[in-house]
Amino acid sequence: MKKPNVLIFFTDDQRFDTIGAMGNPEIKTPNLDKFVKESIAFRQGHIMGGTCGAVCMPSRAMLQTGRTVFTLHGEGKKNGGMIPPEHTTMPELFRANGYFTQHIGKWHQDKKSFNRAYIDANSIFSFGNNIPKRSGWYGAGGHYAPVLMDYDPTGEYVLEHAFQMEKGMIKKKEIDKNIQNNMHSTDIFCDTALEFLENYDQEKPFYLYTALVAPHDPRNAPEKYEEMYSPDDVSTPENFLPQHTFDNGDLWVRDELLEFFPRREYSIRRHIADYYSMISHIDARFGDVMKKLKDKGLYENTIIIFAGDNGLALGQHGLMGKQSVYEHSIRVPLIVKPAGEFVPRMTDAYAYLCDIFPTLCDLCDLEVPESVNAKSFADVVNGATDMAREDLLLIYRNFQRAYKNDRFKLIEYFVGDQRNTQLFDLEKDPHEITNLAERPEYKVILEELKKKLHEKQVEFADPLVTCTAEKLAEDIW
For 182, left (φ over 0), alpha (ψ -120 to 50), or beta? Predict the structure, then answer.
């Protein structure tokens, strides 16, 4: 049998608790529920965090490079916006090992790293972080007006579609056509994936990366899916607050302005209903892609990974976005179906998204590049163990640091001269409602976790360890 194919299906802003089979009775995800039962489903998949408000950019860079958060690079800042040639990307490695590498959808990094990695691509969404906003992505069109690019083998992409649209050039007609034809971004990307799978006839295995821009706002799903949910039919989060109890460093970032202050319960349920409708739409189209793999006889010999780039608050802790280290923002779906025979199951093993790269290397018998510094969880997938990482460091910019072990979570906040500490017992309090940091009976645990947090910061080369107060105040990122 030839080497297994690889298909990564990646969503945008989908948090961990948005799949029916993994504990959410209010959302309708029949295809993902079925996939969970056919795979290794991680209850504790995490991002490391973000070094900028657009958390998806460093998150996707960590996925692509297998590098931890403080070892990324960018245009002047270590935010993952640019991947240097010395950092081998996952598709680049697979391409060098005889795979046909194909990209569909969102790419949040630079053009040069993209063209090093892929042999071909279709419906490329965005080069450069400002293109979606310039193109009206947050305006009336939303998912019905995605700015897409054609693959350019030279890697230049001189006439970017956003600029073409602004100048009234031909690509605006294509965007208008998408709106007129009622084409949603999820449909465009998944139809493109179906076309690729239907027509793929090469002997070499494929590496297919399908990266959606849903369920990111604006949450305008097709009407069929919007009608599935009402604000009256979804629950207010248990940890809902009208506003966050203190300044976490980024309370006025774009995501937080999507709802009025103070937050109102009915409005939050409306946001959640729209969010669920987007995910049910994703679920239906994911099911179409899985069916095509099975119809073509490719399913058994394809490693399939379903994951998301970060979570989302939507009213929890008085927040709306993903700019925090609470569970709702740093835990993501992570479901892995290996090729060949295996035992499907759920696992509580801790894993980062950046760990996917070395894991796929192990599963496909490829040598892990020297530039990768993440940790493989292939032994969990293979059933040899149910332990990957013992504990986790979680970060958001220079404002927030967290340490998480198998029971407790410590969060430290550094905002100007203000310092706040939170301690949660995740076993008894999974929604992080009761702060134990000031309780005398937890003093020993608190001090131990603070020590562990510092050790993790040193291990992962956190610049806050040696940062001066003056440098901290001006934002090290």
Answer: left
